[in-house]
Design goal:
- Helix 10 crosses helix 13 and helix 11 packs parallel to helix 12.
- About 45% of the residues lie in helices and about 10% in strands.
- The chain has 22 helices and 16 strands.
- By secondary structure, the chain is α/β, with parallel strands linked by helices.
Length: about 600
């Protein structure tokens, strides 16, 4: 019998602790001396992610031992309660939208987020008659204009037995991040919101939208930094207009998106709270004000796909989990079909239930900052905060957000990152399941592709858009010609190296919706004789000998089907010669697929209108 206290007994004491060096040596052995540097992942944020992390990586971090609810609030508050907000787009007088909101509140939504493009038409009295604003959390977003909506709302409250002090929710009117500037009238409107919000401590009047950056492909550090830059410009504008600094800081909410990079998205909100605390402290106010920051998160629009749209259900689940684990205050999950049609009762219910399941079945509301203590996540939080803070200071040195936006710095830096992302999607380095990898072979498109592409509501900034346009062109070909466009992959000769590029071409055109026919030929004569009589929209040539390549293009110039002839190889210094021999482009791993997409889409589009 032992006298040792079981509460103080060290678990697994029979195992000796391992140092980082010992882990490294074991990893090298298991990897058969493959250099660990080859496993390092270089991100769009300029961060190098190692294959493993140890306690030595966080030994110097001062934030790892801090309690939730204490400055600098990296770990959030003492609870992890988030609100499940359903987003509803408003048309006309909003009565149908209000009815939908009342129904959603009875089916699990904790609150509503109205998107109101025409606030002058919104029926405030009807809203107050259907939803109890003494109890319910309501957010209002105005993408175009405010039109004195807040004052009209407050003016109707007393007659409908709603106390201003009971109002809970937020207003999102953010011309700064939307267009990079704030006019005198807009500044006056925001000051008006603040005056009204003083009567409602749980109603946030200033919402800064980082989603305006993430929705066009910004990196996470850019989303954090530019959101904070915009916040400081708002603070300076409003305090210069006479608003007390404490009131402004306590009235700010951030609206961010959660993307598919799971661990990065968890670290993002933690890093944002850390940096916001530094900004609050710099204004010389009570540091506890930093703890009043509210964060609303919505699942990312940039990663939403139109093709194989049911995969969006999986995307938004991981996105929602990352936001919840990071300690978001409210969450909106987008319906899986929102990119190509008005969401229906089914897709809205599924979206709403994601948050409900995370709370009621996964019990994520019972854990405060589950990321705490993770060697990887603590290190990542610190690195994101450091990179974002450097970028924040760079923008401030340029005169702040408005000046940096006007000079083109903000948008050009985001464009640089988004182009890298689009290139990685085109080459297959970045995977969008169901779009550029593992497409659904039996998918049927139940909407008009041509009408969707031409619609002003179709989001052309999304990651999947270039691939989707190609796929929709093939769908139009199918509908008008009663068959899918055909891509023949001609394998000539026996050299094994060509199979890599041919396999890449096969996967690419399969994702584009083509019918694929892989044909094996022993020589150029056999290939040209058989293919000459075949109707195909695209012909990909993978040949083992240079002579085959040089001779094959000219043999097919007079083919009656006039296919797009593409070489599955990188001819490097021979591109001009290959183009002269009849090839129109080149496909290989890590190539830029945009030119091929444009070329094939143009030909298909032209043929469909003949």
């Amino acid at each position: 019998m032992t006298d040792e206290n079981p509460q103080t007994k060290k678990l697994f004491s029979e195992f000796n602790p391992a140092t980082a060096t010992e882990w490294q040596e074991r990893a090298k052995k298991d990897l058969r001396d493959t250099p660990l540097e080859q496993l390092t992942w270089h991100t769009y944020e300029g961060i190098s992610i190692k294959p493993y992390y140890t306690k030595e990586d966080i030994a110097q971090l001062q934030t790892t031992n801090q309690e939730p609810g204490t400055y600098p609030y990296l770990r959030g508050t003492n609870t992890n309660i988030w609100l499940n907000l359903q987003e509803i787009k408003v048309e006309g007088n909003a009565q149908p939208a209000i009815d939908k909101a009342a129904d959603a509140l009875s089916r699990g939504a904790d609150g509503i987020h109205f998107i109101i493009p025409q606030p002058e038409l919104f029926d405030i009295v009807y809203l107050l008659s259907k939803i109890d604003l003494n109890e319910c959390f309501i957010g209002f977003t105005f993408p175009n204009k405010l039109d004195h909506f807040p004052s009209r709302l407050h003016g109707k409250l007393p007659a409908n037995q709603v106390a201003s002090a009971s109002l809970k929710g937020f207003i999102k009117y953010d011309p700064m991040t939307a267009k990079g500037e704030l006019t005198r009238e807009e500044n006056k409107a925001l000051a008006e919101i603040m005056d009204l919000a003083k009567e409602s401590p749980d109603f946030y009047g200033i919402t800064i939208s980082g989603t305006n950056f993430s929705s066009i492909g910004a990196s996470i550090t850019q989303e954090i930094a530019y959101t904070l830059n915009a916040a400081t410009d708002y603070i300076n504008r409003l305090t210069n207009a006479g608003q007390p600094i404490e009131a402004v800081l306590q009235d700010i909410q951030f609206h961010l998106s959660a993307g598919t990079n799971y661990f990065f998205e968890i670290a993002k909100l933690r890093a944002l709270r850390l940096l916001w605390s530094a900004i609050v402290e710099a204004y010389g106010v009570d540091k506890s004000i930093a703890g009043k920051l509210r964060i609303h998160t919505s699942t990312s629009s940039w990663y939403q796909t139109t093709l194989d749209s049911y995969t969006n259900m999986l995307r938004v689940t991981t996105e929602a989990m990352s936001a919840v684990i990071a300690g978001t205050d409210s969450l909106t999950v987008s319906p899986f079909d929102s990119t190509y049609r008005k969401s229906d009762e089914f897709s809205e219910r599924i979206a709403r239930n994601v948050s409900i399941i995370l709370k009621e079945e996964a019990y994520l509301d019972k854990a405060i900052d589950p990321a705490a203590g993770s060697y990887y996540l603590e290190t990542l939080t610190n690195e994101l905060a450091t990179k974002a803070w450097d970028l924040f200071k760079e923008v401030e040195a340029k005169g702040g957000f408005e000046a940096a936006y006007e000079s083109g710095f903000i948008l050009s830096s985001i464009t640089e990152v988004s182009r890298r992302k689009f290139r990685d999607i085109a080459t297959g380095r970045m995977i969008l399941v169901g779009t550029n990898k593992y497409p659904s072979p039996n998918e049927t498109i139940d909407f008009d592709p041509e009408a969707l592409i031409q619609s002003s509501h179709f989001d052309t900034t999304r990651a999947a858009y270039p691939t989707e346009v190609m796929r929709m062109a093939t769908e139009l070909h199918l509908r008008k010609r009663k068959r899918r466009p055909l891509a023949i992959i001609a394998m000539i000769g026996e050299k094994a190296d060509r199979h890599v590029n041919a396999a890449f071409a096969q996967e690419f055109f399969s994702c584009a919706g083509f019918e694929i026919d892989v044909q094996q030929f022993s020589n150029i004569e056999q290939a040209s004789d058989q293919i000459d009589s075949t109707s195909a929209e695209v012909l990909i040539v993978a040949a083992s000998e240079k002579a085959y390549v040089q001779e094959f293009g000219p043999r097919l110039r007079n083919n009656h089907a006039k296919p797009t002839i593409i070489l599955a190889d990188n001819p490097e210094n021979m591109k001009e010669e290959m183009l002269a021999n009849g090839y129109e482009d080149f496909i290989f791993e890590d190539c830029d697929m945009k030119t091929i997409l444009d070329l094939v889409h143009k030909k298909l589009h032209g043929n469909n209108h003949q």
